[in-house]
């Protein structure tokens, strides 16, 4: 039973039922998720809090396993019941044998753009046309939904105008329910415990809200569009694989209003705004170096997990209450892996080989890191000021590189330049960058 050293905050899943607890012990069912509070003196016991009930108590380590990672699997679907363009007759076939409340959704063949909800009831299959109107979906023109996920969520809770409450999704063959997989692994949070507050940011794909989850301050990214939510599963899967002080921590997800991604709350916002609003007068060089070091350490860890960021930039670095910088948005969700839409790439941050030949690697992340260093030491200026995207691409090919920001220590500028070596192999590793920054910090402390 030894060999488990879970620090406070570790999320664990229970391996079996424990319904008759002794005094001070926690009761639980198999598959419940708990948060470690502390290890108890002696062997193999932990004080933990039940994520569902909020109760605290003792638990045997042998009853627990640490929450696992979700594999980014293309078969993992938020809408496993969505069968695409199949005919009504095929839908009836899929819903055999009859079972009240067994359902699927298909695309209407006759009315392109509309969907059909097919529900098994009695010995029949009933087909409900879902009308797509002004960006909302509706079956009865009374209840409107912004996407299919919400609509299904609703009719699983309430019968409304249809023949029966939806009970059981019929998955498209080969598809796995992301909800089930997330729940099994312990990453599905409980909507009841979430309180939402003010909007703190606007992402490209949805709002970011402040909130509270079981007493902890959190940030919640809400992705309403179901297709985008599906794409974000990749990002979420990447987040379940990592745990590091310089990476924004995922608490879990909730399938509601599309998708909620619940993360630790970073009270001081993103690095660009942090620097712009405070400026040179309030942020000393030492703090800039500490941010740069934090990011390099987070990236070194990501590299060790063989994860490529692809969108490393100061806007994606968040600052905690204690001034710790953490890397966010590391799931590659936003960049098409086949590079089909090159116009979406953050040109001024992306390495030449990645732009031209779609060769993304930790070394192309290092190039972006050089740009991030430049942004940091210029207190949040946009890189290549006054140059158009086209000019940047051309000038870089001719060997042009940005000038150092005003007041930038020469050693730091040398680091930027090394990140901008044309040949990826000549760029430093994140480990090397970490060492150099530590040296520079020490040097600053000595003078
Ligand atoms: P996008 O999907 O556009 O990349 P981001 O994840 O970058 O969205 O979030 C947009 C903004 O919301 C950020 O710049 C930041 O200001 C705020 N934000 C995002 N995540 C958090 C968080 N965990 N804590 C605090 N603020 C956050
Ligand atoms: Mg972002």
Automatic annotation (TrEMBL):
Binding site for ATP: 221
Domain of life according to the entry: Eukaryota
UniProt feature, compositional bias: Basic and acidic residues: 14-23
Pfam families named among the record's database cross-references: PK_Tyr_Ser-Thr, SH2, SH3_1
Chain ranges of the Protein kinase domain: 194-441
Region spans: Disordered: 1-23
Molecular-function GO terms, alphabetical: ATP binding; non-membrane spanning protein tyrosine kinase activity
Gene Ontology, cellular component aspect: cytoplasm; membrane
Known catalytic reactions: L-tyrosyl-[protein] + ATP = O-phospho-L-tyrosyl-[protein] + ADP + H(+)
Signal peptide: none
Enzyme kind, highest EC tier: transferase
Keyword set, alphabetical order: ATP-binding, Cytoplasm, Kinase, Membrane, Nucleotide-binding, SH2 domain, SH3 domain, Transferase, Tyrosine-protein kinase
Chief location bin: cytoplasm
The enzyme's E.C. designation: 2.7.10.2
Domain SH3: 7-69
Domain SH2: 81-170
Subcellular location: Cytoplasm; Membrane
Keyword Kinase appears in the UniProt entry: yes
Subunit structure: Interacts with KIT.
Family membership: Belongs to the protein kinase superfamily. Tyr protein kinase family.
Protein name, per record: Tyrosine-protein kinase
Organism whose genome encodes this protein: Strigops habroptila
Designated gene of the protein: MATK
